[in-house]
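Here comes my example:
=====
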Amino acid sequence: MRNIFILFVLVLPALVHGAVEPVKTVGAAPATNAFGVAIVPDATHLPVTVTNTVMIANERVTYTAETGMLPLLKPDGTPRASVFYVAYTRTGITNKAARPVTFCFNGGPGSASLWLHLGALGPRRVKMNEDGSLPPPPFSVVDNEYSLAGASDLVFIDPVATGFSRPAKDEKTDQFFGDQGDLEATGEFIRLWTTRHERWLSPKYVLGESYGVFRAAGLAEYLRGHCGLYLNGLMLVSGVLNFAAIDGDSGNDLPYITILPAYTAAAHFHHKLPADLQADVNRALAESRTFANGEYTTALHAGAALPADEREKVVTELARLTGLKPALIADNNLRIDGGIFRKQLLHDEGLVLGVYDARLTGRDGRPGLPYPATDPSSDATMGPFSAAMNSYVRSELKFSDDLPYEIFGGVQPWNYGTPNNYPNASEKLAQAMNQNPYMRVLVLGGRCDLVCPIDSIRYSLEHMALAPEYRQNLTYEEYDAGHMMYINLPDLKKMHHDLVRFIGR
């Protein structure tokens, strides 16, 4: 299940949906091959810049978009990779030290940053249906009135082998395909971008999604210890810190406990709960969490020693909280796998649920299989985001290239750097927070996320060795949708409010 945490720019021409055309374009001419065809430039090329304007919260924000490649250097100064980035800086700022900057990336490992870029944070966003479901093609983009660009400058980073980021000639790619190599590469990028743009005195934030949360937690400690770069805050979106909380196998019952409230939220959305729980989602979630952390935990720990009458009570309560049939729960020994839940909740209607967002449904055409043959939530986002990024980077950002924009880089196998099955970044985060007591952490999670349930990261944070005095630096926000909660328009509005408030504090 570990490699499922891949999170998902080029956008249609600037005339679409009222976007303002760039008013200034500077930078190096695109490199061409012997046939005069553009190719991806490396870190020796100057970045391309354009200036544009967007309305955010009824305020006109003018910004410069800088698109380019930054080198990762070896000790002798020669490059080992070129990292693709898009940076948005607000114009008219005379005091850089007062202007926050936020470094953003998605997860995977092996995902480019287009999902956060064109889904939530950047000045342009993919036009989805308001509930985040798939719109009919052809796809389009619109100005993002909920962009974070009003409150903070933004730097979107594509790790090596994603986006247009590539290792240098003759450099082995596996040096970047592991927790430590990834931290070193991303940390070096942040250090160098901060240096080149004279932002060492600016408030600095890191925002990661999915595996990007694992990366962000490690970066907080890596940047402090290796670069002397102290962060003001982390924004952790739909993430994982301790794989033991999400990666179930024989003998590890923790994931069944942390995912139960997500099942309850999904069942509530699809009107599969009994009337008293269906009347109030907050009550339903509170009851689910109380049961998960109490009787359910006790029952799972008891194993075969659980008395028959107690087992029957647990089956009945699980059916009440999940909308599943009691016989199905009993047959699966009280442990409901996410695939089974997705397949069975709406099985009688011929529908399966999305794994990233259990609100979204689809038909997989294979009703007899025990697990879904498709993920409706991935199906809803891949086409619109792929079209958007492949248009936007060329048409509006004016970054010319021939190579494909790699949404998912081939980065497997990934070296998690641990002898056991459960990589854990919680202690790195705790160390960073203990040694930098001013660093605040905002945790954002979707209730219908079956990949990284918000209760799993809450469990990890509540069990890390953080000084009690600093627990007040942790803040949680929940959303109605799933992993990419921002594709749901009401959640995008709330997310914008939560992020701006967090940075402004």
In short: Residues 106 and 209 are 5 Å apart (CA to CA). The chain has 13 helices and 15 strands.
